[in-house]
Amino acid sequence: AVDFPGLHNKLRTEYGPASVRPHEVASVLQDIQRDLEDYEAEIYHLERLRQEKQRLEQYAAQMRSLFSPIRKVPDEIICHIFDDCCDMNSFRVVGLTRRLPTPMSQALRSKPAMVISSVCSRWRRNALSMPVIWSRISLLWNMHLTEEYCEREHTEVFFPLSNFLDLSQQCPMTVNLEVEGWPFATPAVLHPVFERLFLQAVRWQNFSFRCVEYTIQELLDFAGISPAAFPVLSELCVTYVDENDLIPFLDTAPKLQSLSLGDNLDCMPQGFKYYLQLSHLDFCPDQAEIQNLFDKCPNLVSLRVPESWHLPNAVGSMTITCSSRLETLIIRHGHWWNDVSDAIFPLLRLPSLKTLRLEKSQRRVHNEGIDGKPWNNFEPFKVFVHRSTFQLTTFSMQQLTISDANLVYILFHLPTLQDLTIDDSGISPKCSPISSEFIESLHGYRTSSLRPSKAVNLPRLRSLRLLNVAATTFSDHLVVDMVQSRWIPAKIHDVGTSTLEADCLRVFTMTFPNRSESEAGGVYSSLAPIERDGMMVVIGLGRGSKQ
């Protein structure tokens, strides 16, 4: 036994040398040493037990992961998920000698194919068996003439891209190429990244190109690939520098179906062989081009054009052109040449149209929503809607100043509409069409000041998205009441009976970037039961927040 009090008493007492019995002290110390060794052995044994316990816990956790639902998913479905997730692998090259280090997580996030192939051996095996997810490449090149060519640093750029090209095997490629600087290693030699990429031109299926200083033909010449061939190219998007940008594609892309020229003001290229087979066209036409468009491109099903043709001094009579095949029309509004006398709507009749989008132009220079200027092409647009008598199912408008009364008028003449999206970005509250009166006009059975008729406005509406509403206050109870009035579950599966003319609303989204949850007062929480029953409801209050 350990006797600390007795030992302390002896240590405090003036014992002489004769009073100490060495053999007794030595015996006690030997016993203590043996006990310490025994304790050390026990501690070591317990430590081993603790480590064994941790190993068993880790083993059990890994064993339980065998029950994970993802392991039951067949490889075929896993591959479909990978295909959806890996839409584009982005490479961004800036001035290498003065760039800041890119965090590994950020670098990987822009290359989803690399991310999923690093999770586990099964995912890697599936990813490596799918060349298509490695074949979608976006390259933003922002090098400048003053940058010195460093072979080691440029190899760091070249290797990952080259690796993606190797893993894509012979799969048709999607390539987005944006060159903002100097694409050469030396004044006479193209950078190896471009040489390797252009060698794959025969595999380009979707190609997008934007460069301020050089045409694609010039870069192909520097790469020693001229004349080039694009046997599988089906989608081409080129931002013009001049008319030479399309020279490489005039007669070398026999499968081309989609041509996008964006906001370029040049006329359609002469000598282009593939107008007859185009199904999508995006360009800025003049009056003659829009009037002859469907004779030149009779198979168009999708068209994207500005709201006004860009040559106001064009002469000749204005004749209406008609297409019975066009299903999607995208109108870019707000161009600097926009004038009501040059509106494109009086030239069109599109009876088969299913989708209509009014989106802001990237070249927009005047802000109707800020200065209160209304959309000056509303009257031509209204006549176009009446003339075409189409059965529209999808309609969206972005940053367009139009009164709530005019919007309700247009929607009343679109009874087949199923999907409506209104984006108020950049619109001041006083110019926004998303008002309390507009919300009331969408009620499932009640009349309003903008809808005196008992007929339901948009009876087939299934999805309603009201985005970036600029208002700082709103009649939230009217929104809740309208959504509840259009939630008719019996209409989803045609079970039960309902005397209401409206279809069941399945999706509702409304975002207020300038309001907080406290300002809404929790009114929208009353929509929670509807959401539990099946409607997808998203209410955004404040930037990035949801309720």
TrEMBL record:
Chain coiled-coil ranges: 29-66
Keyword Coiled coil: yes
Keywords: Coiled coil
Superkingdom of source: Eukaryota
InterPro entries named among the record's database cross-references: LRR_dom_sf
SUPFAM superfamilies membership: RNI-like
Coiled coil found in the keyword field: yes
Record lineage: Eukaryota, Fungi, Dikarya, Basidiomycota, Agaricomycotina
Organism: Rhodocollybia butyracea
Name used for this protein in its record: F-box domain-containing protein
